[in-house]
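hey m, so remember when u said the tokens were messed up on ur end? i reran from scratch. heres the input so u can diff it against urs
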Amino acid sequence: VMASMAHLQEEKLRLQEELLGLQEKLAARENDELSRSLQLQGQVETLKAKLLEQAQEIGRLRSELGGTDTEKHRDLLVAENERLRQEMKACEGELRELRRQQQAPCQDCAHLQENARLQERLSQLQREAEETRAKLAELDLEVQQKTNRLAEVELRLKDSLAERAEEEERLSRRLRDSQETIASLKSQPQQIKYIIKTVEVESAKAKQALCESQSRNQYLQEQVGMQRQVLKEMEQQLQSSQKTAAQLRAQIMMYEAELERAHGQMLEEMQAMEEEKNRAIEEAFSRAQMEMKAVHENLAGVRTNLLTLQPALRTLTHDYNSLKRQVRDFPLLLQETLRSARAEIGQAIEDVHSTNRELLRKYRRELQLRKKCHNELVRLKGNIRVFGRVRPIMKEDGEGPEAANAVTFDADDDAVLHLLHKGKQVSFELDKVFPPQASQEEVFQEVQALVTSCIDGYNVCIFAYGQTGAGKTYTMEGTAANPGINQRALQLLFSEVRSKEADWDYAISVSAAEIYNEALRDLLGKEPQEKLEIKLCPDGSGQLYVPGLTEFRVQSVEDINKVFEFGHINRATECTNLNEHSSRSHALLIVTVHGLDRSTGLRTTGKLNLVDLAGSERVGRSGAEGSRLREAQHINKSLSALGDVIYALRSRQGHVPFRNSKLTYLLQDSLSGDSKTLMMVQVSPAEKNTSETLCSLKFAERVRSVELGPVSRKAELASWPSQEQLEGDTPGTAAPSGRGHASPSPGQLSSRAASIRRKLQTSG
């Protein structure tokens, strides 16, 4: 232990010597830093002195520029402008004197044109003087800009000095902190650096002393490391301060060079401007002298021209007198000429009017003949007839440009309409076009011939097509006070039946169905929500029928009203952004007419399909969501399938995709060539609906070009043994459902719908 303690004492002495050496080095470094800081302060003072000298030089330059050259230059230009203004006034006085010397008879002579040219030259001189003044203003502005640039340079120098002062202050604080740290280290007791050696002893005190010595040695090593780190940081700060000082020196030199360059540029520009001003003044003066000389020469020429114009003036006076005599005799000659011209023009107008009336009469006769031939050709070819109907503008269309009328009609041809779409007019030709003011009666008069052919044993199909809110349901069903095609057709059938009851026996039955979300439902059945299927007749005729579809036999108009009311209760309608009562399904009214000629035994069967298609709609505009969105998707899909069928029929393809949709499958009999088919296309005239109107009319033109072939009559000679066979089986009871698309429970059926169904059964 004693040997270890002695060794520790020696190590302590060695560490003290090393500490003294470090303290001496630290003191020497502090002295170096103090000397460097003093040197930097001296450099800063030198920079401040240079900045003051630069500021004084800038002030001197500013005073010289602002108070000497610029002012002298401005005064010279003002004096020159005043002289030019006096010369202009003198020229104007001379021109006024020349005008006073002119005489009245020579107003149209050549010297006036020369005077006008001189005035234009004078105005040009005035404009040049104005340009000279503008150049002076630009020079003043340029001098002001250079002064501002000098001020900016001065501000930048001041900012550099402030930054330098802040850097010096920061270095001073760091030096003071370093000095305080060194002083605190000096005040601490001397520490011992020791070397740990492993000595196995048994004394606890010796072990404790050894541990304390080791911890003390570790602490001293950490302190020495910290001091070395502080010294290294101070060296780095000193290097950064030296770099900053070098950068400041470079900036000062750059500022001095920029000041010298700006001063030289200003002197050069001032000299160039002075030379340009003198040159412009000399040129203007020389031009003015030349022009004044030309004015004097022109004036002399004018005076000589005045002497030569007197004989010409006498000749003009003689011609004037002769013309005056002719003018006195002119009114009588003019009146006589006008009378004869009026008579000839009146006769020509009368001839043209009579010719136009005859041509118009022939044109109308030819137009009627053409329509008659066209209808006969359509009948023979079996084309689908297409009628168009335009609904009026309503308050639901709103106001403003979007509610403007975009549809116009041809005054001479009731089968043509014009649509204004995106600034371009597009024309469409249909079989018949009904304007907004057309009544339900006028529309039905055009289709009643098709309806009556149903009694003669033909299949007839009338369907309404168009966008939602275009008036399809109104055209097909109408209102109670103003019924549509459906009710008027049945009324016409009853009227025809009554007119032929002396020779014929007829039985009329009605069925109503709808296609909702690609599901066929019976609107007159006991369970309206039950889905039905379309099948081929088992008799091998190739006709389609719907098993389970309820049929009611109707015998009067009252029965028709009950059927329609019952069907309306079960039809699916909802409110959308485009239509308050939008039909959400395709409605089909199927009227079957069985006839028997008692004298010949001829038996006929005719079918009338009245279809109210659901309106095509754009989901973004109609605001359909949830179930409304699903309904819109099914509606658009079925209408798209109808378009595919029309395309296949038009292009005469071998396969027609009738089975792609329940709608096209159910209309297969009407579109396959064994039916008289009419499409009523409904359009909206509002500007905001022109895109949908254009699509509907284009589809109508494609449908119009479809040829289905000649229509055959369903008639055969057979006996009709009993009235019961004509009437058929008693139709089943029909239960209405509430409006909507959810299946109601029996307790939710309204009493009104139940009473209607009972009345239908009783009348049947």
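this time it looks ok to me. Confidence is low (pLDDT under 50) at residues 103-107, 191-202, 577-581, 719-753. if urs says something different then somethings off w ur setup not the seq
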